[in-house]
């Protein structure tokens, strides 16, 4: 995988250089108004851009497979916290790659399972993920010891330590600050943003995941124009590439009334690296069929149905214009929440929302998650955890 990824990235760089040379040539040709050569160069640029796009998609496929491997080594909640950090970019340009490979060989010889984090989209922190039994580590490799003193190296080393400690003890070992985007989406004042200890609460909710959808889809997708399966309030529809018109007609009929959410699970290939990839549930050959677009699988559900389920939990859902998957939603409890802390009601449980769209989580489980988040019991447990943390930090 590593050699293949590097070869793709180098080919992308090579073609980008060719494209740049052609653009420079066009600028010169315009001085002499040589239109035939200008047209030829523009057509060649279009061909090169298509090739770059194809190679980038192949690269995303490799990273997608890396994300599947990552979930064999790390808990999905841990990956969720890793993913929010900046992507390191292409691995082919890394000066310390040779040192990473040597370090990986060393840890493998010591009995660790080793994953190069650059082979994933979901693990942008650290160079290597190591697992031996229940022990999980993130390791940052520097070819020059002096590089460990840099600010970026400190971030790459310290942040994974904080995340792993947070997952073990449910409290961050040091204060953390929410990203500006998260603060804005929650409706809080960015100017009042302060660092504080991150706290998570254990949940007793047993998630309903539609694992069986994959097998059912591929039993019927080559026999019927469109396969439709129900998983609670969700509809799963699938077809082969040649039957996409029939799928479109079926969706238009189904979504004619009410406000529907429809998502193509293939989008997970290039988006939302913290959402468990469908490759976890599909056979390898079925995963390839989805990746290449030979088989199209969409999930769909009605926002009115979601609102009804929340209303049964005494929560009013209001939603705004849908410009993206994470469009504005406000979950208003129709009951008092007494406590010293204010609870967030806007765009809650967003990670679970994306799992509904792209990773076979049931809509009913999402409703349970929202109801738990907005419950008096959760607020009381949260307050108790904060007091417990403050007491532990002061001693």
Question: Any overview of this molecule?
Answer:
The protein is of the alpha+beta class and 395 residues long. It folds into two domains: 1-169, no CATH class; 212-377, no CATH class. The chain is 49% helix and 12% strand. A four-stranded antiparallel sheet has the order 4-5-7-6, with helices on both faces. Helix 1 (2-32) packs antiparallel against helix 2 and helix 3 (76-83) runs antiparallel to helix 5 (151-169). The N and C termini lie far apart (49 Å). The model has no long low-confidence stretch (mean pLDDT 88).
Flag low-confidence runs: none
Describe the largest sheet: 4 strands, antiparallel
Summarize model confidence as the mean pLDDT.
Answer: 88
The figure for the number of domains is: 2
Strand order, largest beta sheet:
4-5-7-6
The rough form would be described as globular
Count of DSSP-assigned helices: 13
SS-based structural class?
A: alpha+beta
Order of helices and strands: HHHHEEEHHHEEHEHEHEEHHH
How far apart the termini lie comes to: 49 Å
**Quaternary state, please?**
single chain
Provide the helix percentage.
40-55%
* Number of DSSP-assigned strands: 9
Give me the Rg, rounded: 24 Å
Bin the strand percentage: 5-15%
